[in-house]
Amino acid sequence: MSPTAHMNIKRVFPRTPTILLGVLALSCIGVLIADFWPFLQRGLAGQVILSPDETDFDQILFHYSTLPRLAMAFLCGAGLALAGAAIQTVLRNPLASPTTLGVGAGVEFALTIFILIAPASFAIFQEAFALAGGMIALGAVYLIAAKRGNATLWLILAGMIVNLLLQSGTQVLLLFNEQYLQSVFMWGAGDLAQNGWDATLFILPRVAIGMIAVLALSRPLDLLALGDETASSLGAKVTVLRLLILGFAVFITASVISAAGMIGFVGLAVPAALRIAGLTRSRDLMIYSVFTGGFALLFIDFMVRQFNGLGGDILPTGAATALFGAPFIILILRKARIIPGNQSDDQHSDQQIISKTGLSILLTVILIVGVVFSLFTSLDGNGFAVLGWTGPWGDSSLDIFTGRAERTFAAMICGAALAVSGTLIQRVGRNPLASPEITGVSSATALAIIIALAIFGVGQRADLMLVGAFGGIISLIVLLALCRKFNHAPHYMLLNGLALTAILGAIVRIVLTRSGTQTSMLLSWLAGTTYFTNMDEVMIVAGVTGVLLIVAIALRRPLELASLGTDQSVSLGLGISTFQFAMMLVAAILAAAATLLVGPLSFVGLMAPHLARVAGYRLAGGHLLGSVLIGVNVMMVAEWLARNILYPQQLPTGLIAALIGTSYFLILAARKR
């Protein structure tokens, strides 16, 4: 595959980019007229801009709030769109952006740390801290994907891994600092509200410098777009140019996030839309991105401001922007020739790296010893403490044992449920890197439960489980509908799933900003915690998981056929569409049950079936059982570490599981196969 194959996008719209820019410009003129109209009627437009009457509250509010917000919206949109265009061109990847490659999450994580722990005298270093966070995140993504030639699929997967890890870290910091929770969370959701010109004057020179630098490098960008070998043969210093341009793109992104928080998907949607509309030259793309991005965010923010007046609730612009931008991923996938690489590495082509028999024995021993260890030992600040070791058991000892049992078994059952869910999705979708969280099932389940709990006041766990399962099923139906024409390319399911996850994550942010006093509890649950479980719920989820596991094992022969592909399955008499939907339905129910009990967990549904397969569990029945064994052990270890590693404080189990999953993914990415 040629280096430029990733950017081979067809022109699908007959309209030129100029028409698109003109429509947005006219829309923004309408926005300005609407905002200025009360003052235009009185002939005060010039006065309210230059020197407002300090005795007129409307003029003061407009001059120090609305006007700087309009300027901020344009600057942020222009800067992020330009940064996204530069990153896409440098990496020759139409799905690359500050959002999808972890830059935004890195800046947000770094700034959250700075806000929470840095003294006021260190304020001058805030921008440098943010820039370092973004560069480190992008560097991690680049290093992970470099082993696979920076293919589209691996860049996006690496970005997702880094995003999930850094977002988990940000959530943990917020949970341990509840006094800052609402303000920091609101900033993280992307807030353009202004109470003066300070933020605008802060961001203006920085975005301007970044724009000038990137535009000045537009000619070298054209060379990089031809591929590394071609650019080198023409005299370009590829590595230096790539680092320089990426550095300026991250600088612009860090400046925007420092001033306004996370603004989602402008950096992806705007340059991608312009490419689809026909722009190919880097200089033209950069210039159009600046104005199109600025006008687009200005118009979106105007729409957001109209909703903010309803009931006094605040709708974060950044999260709302993601609702407009994330669907462009789906559009790009359908209109662009994106070939992530050879998809032959299916479930039968992985090199076995661990003995199946040895792994089975080892996991069984770890499971038995681990359950005993988890129930009877803990850390108390002075080392290991054994329950009941120093005296007879009393009521307090029994309560401690019961609490540990509830949390340990809850984690283990969730590990089993997600392992089965991930195995079914991977085998039916013929994609060894698919899982409930990557394909949008976990996000849809979590969103449905949050809406039912925070907005409609549904409190019964059984009702919440049904609502969550319904959300996961709807997400899977949408995903299958989007991928129905691409059965020959399993990676399309993965990339469309990432798009759905981004959209659902934006809605979760919006709902959380409206949940008031429940925000802390919901954030804790979203990070993945066993703290809210009880044994009755654990037994219900265990029953559901056990029954569906038996059903899946009973259908192991059709699962084997489905793994062969659509043509072979149909020729052997399997109704692939019906069977695929049935298995995805089972996967959605399992993901919903696990999410309700512990929260949306990352990586378990990806890692367990993948590790089981490379360990030698190739046939469907053995694959399911091996995945369950691995998933149970991973979550058991994660729960004990989360409960004890920072004693007496407790970390979310989901964060520890994410750390384990990230470590495994890094090992996987480092392998040549």
UniProtKB/TrEMBL annotation:
GO BP terms: siderophore-iron import into cell
Superkingdom field: Bacteria
Molecular functions (GO terms): transmembrane transporter activity
GO-annotated cellular components: plasma membrane
Keyword Chaperone: no
Keywords tagged on the record: Cell membrane, Membrane, Transmembrane, Transmembrane helix, Transport
Residue ranges crossing the lipid bilayer per the database entry: 12-34, 70-91, 103-122, 128-146, 153-176, 196-217, 238-256, 262-278, 285-302, 314-333, 353-376, 438-458, 464-482, 494-512, 538-555, 576-599, 619-641, 653-670
Membrane topology summary: Multi-pass membrane protein
Subcellular locations according to the entry: Cell membrane
Listed Pfam families: FecCD
PANTHER family to which the protein is assigned, alphabetical: FE(3+) DICITRATE TRANSPORT SYSTEM PERMEASE PROTEIN FECD-RELATED (PTHR30472:SF37), FERRIC ENTEROBACTIN TRANSPORT SYSTEM PERMEASE PROTEIN (PTHR30472)
Family: Belongs to the binding-protein-dependent transport system permease family. FecCD subfamily.
Protein's UniProt name: Fe(3+)-hydroxamate ABC transporter permease FhuB
